[in-house]
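Usage

Read records sequentially. Each one opens with the input sequence:
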Amino acid sequence: MTKNRLLLAILLSALILRLIFIFAAANNLPHNDSYQHERSYETIAKNLIAGQGYQGSGFIIGLTAEQKAARPPVYPIFLALCYLIFGQSLLYVQIIQALLSVLSVLLIYLIGRKVFDEQTGLVAGAISAFYPFLIFLTGTVVTETVFILFFLVFIYLLVQLWPANGIAGLQTSRPEPGPNPVNQAQGSRNTWKWAILVGIANGLAILTQSSFILFFVLLAPFGLIKKQSRLSYCLLVAATLTMLCPWVIRNYAVFNRVIFTSTQYGLALYEANSPRATGRPDIDNLRFPPEIINLPEAEREDAIKKMALQWIKENPGKFARLALLKFCYFWNPLPNCADYRSLKYILISIFSYGTVLILAFWQIIRMRKSWGRIGIFLLVILYFSLIHLVYVSSVRYRAPVDALLIILAANNIARFIPKRNK
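and closes with the structure output:
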């Protein structure tokens, strides 16, 4: 079988498996750690369709007022478009998400091929096609499937940009040598193109899942340390900020202040760091006094954030213990949710994620003398690990990391497979 036919078979298998899951099981499984999220996205989408503007319910017990920036805009707008075109049926949303998930499988293949080789790309594509967590997410009405797609587009474009710019220690290949002015001009145009596209993808990812907003800051040392990469990094940042501008301007008009993504940072911080915090999503367990609940939306965000920071300051030991718990929840090979602790789900998790985790970290150790080649992978792993030391952890928040772990695991497996001539 040629590589093109093999890739087509992988993509068709991915689509069939996701559709089978949606029609056979998706609506019969508990989603209790994402139910509140699903409800809030649906409410905003339905309000948009009804002409009531971008507003929806929040998570605070006792709050009846609609919130106007409780969620970043991309996923509610995606839902609203699905509802407008197909009617208000979650089945069509799930089918569209299945198609987007297949595109993510394709991107995993392309990234694996670009960073490593064709064999790695095909193995990574095959693993992701059958990977239970990616399949499961297509049946939930939360941001992850759409976010993973934009995140992988961002990563794919970034590894296209790196060879042209030689970002310090992270390039996947060397730039083409030679003083030819025509080649240099072409390379400069490509740098502009790739940098702007990376920024656009980054902006869409941030406007889908706001926890990604600081990742391009983590890239700054690698983008600014070398003269030849500074322009491309600045273009990346400019394109990202341009993508955020319409939403920021809208929020400024509503709240008379700059809000980059949502008014939920304070609530998310308090959920993870407060007397009732468990380290896992538990928003229903939070309680606030009336004087906090009745504040205007932006002021309430500030007050809750202040409460969280005050608790951290007064309880450094508990904060450290919670951070350790969140780290364990993030990397846990067993399901965190009690409803998925049956033997069936434990075995599925161990044999899928557990195997990928071992193979991926084995590969990271094997490549310890050439980490520059997988620098972006290591930065992503570090970034999400650090973010979820502060905020709550859940299996679904690890999903973008899983996508890159699959590629690393695939490269480990591919070295045992004889090379194909075709």
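Summary fields computed downstream for this record:
- The two ends are 8 Å apart (CA to CA).
- Residues 164-185 have pLDDT under 50 and may be disordered.
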